[in-house]
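Sat 14:20. Reprocessing the chain from the morning session after the first attempt stalled halfway. Input below, unchanged.
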Amino acid sequence: MSLIALGINHRTAPVELREQVAITGERITAALRGLAALPSVTEVAILSTCNRTELYCGLQDDQVDALCEWLAQFHALDAAQIRPHLYSFPDADAVRHLLRVAGGLDSMILGEPQILGQMKEAYQNASDAGTLDAALECLFQHTFAVAKQIRTDTAIGESPVSVAFAAVSLARQIFSNFEQHTALLIGAGDTIELTARHLHDQHLGRMIIANRTPQRAHQLAAQFNGFGISLDEIPAHLAEADIVISATGSQTPILDAGMMKPVLKQRKHRPVFMVDIAVPRDIDPALAKFEDVYLYTVDDLQEVIQENLKSRQEAAHQAEEIIDVQVERFMAWLRAQDAVSSIRSFRQRNEQHRDQVLAKAQQMLANGRDPAEVTAYLAHTLTNKLNHIPSVQIRQAAESGDAALLEAALRLYNLTRD
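Finished this time. Tokens:
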């Protein structure tokens, strides 16, 4: 069996394609079970975020093309459309990739912590769907431990660098005096919560949080002296917002041109700064053509993000060193699993010899034979049985000139040459 990581991310594909292959919400269980049903797939987990969709699989044979075909068929796409944007990593490289992703080393924002929570969710989804086996189960547990080590032993997470931070930094360039402005945040997940925290720290004047579940919006808004609304109430409050930042799991746009036209008129053409962090997108890209709208997507934040990476470069180097060690440690464990069945057979055969000889010795004692004689019989017979097959194989190797097998026997039994 081999391990494969196959995926598409912010480095290999634009947001338009990434949102087409995203696997979110209720579809994730169907995707896991559908992929696990492929003949060559022994186990699978799927990680899908705004910046990446990745399949982690155990394969019985080299059928990477089958994974690509499955991904295309699942989304009703032409495989040729997505194949140029895919990457795949086998075995040790797959392990290294997974550790780097969990440690935030492969993220758009170096060292961002949200990805680890998303990976834990991916693991839980696969566990709930019953698509994990021993290798991926162990790999995910190992990954979580390594990610914790990276956070503890390096400064990778100390600088305030994230998509949320980048969005707020960009807003600061447009609105210098936050105290006089209002932000509308759409969604109530980790990214929006982090965005709200950054805005609050920058002394934002007013904050409105809209969410599909109003109670969750009220709970989050209360932490930052804001107020919560439902998604249906957005049109009534949109004109108040100078800043709009959206990150939901909606499959269709929440804000479109028809909703914004009367809002801009009501605002008397005062500018609106909008950031769409969601994949699929929450804000209709057509809004970027409006004269008073400044619309950015996660891809547009890259320049802001790069300016905040310098302090994490040394920490990333240290993290890579940790990962190199931990990749080899996991691969050693994985290689050892190949020997488990052989060890089990070896032990079972020897235990069978033991039981046979012991039963004979017990019968001899029951028949009144001298215990010393029985003990000698037990030791002699069991030793002969355990030595017989290795002795025959070593003799035959010597007769045939099989030097490799002879050398292996010396190592296996910890012997020295006379």
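The chain has three domains: 2-159+311-338, 163-306, 348-412.
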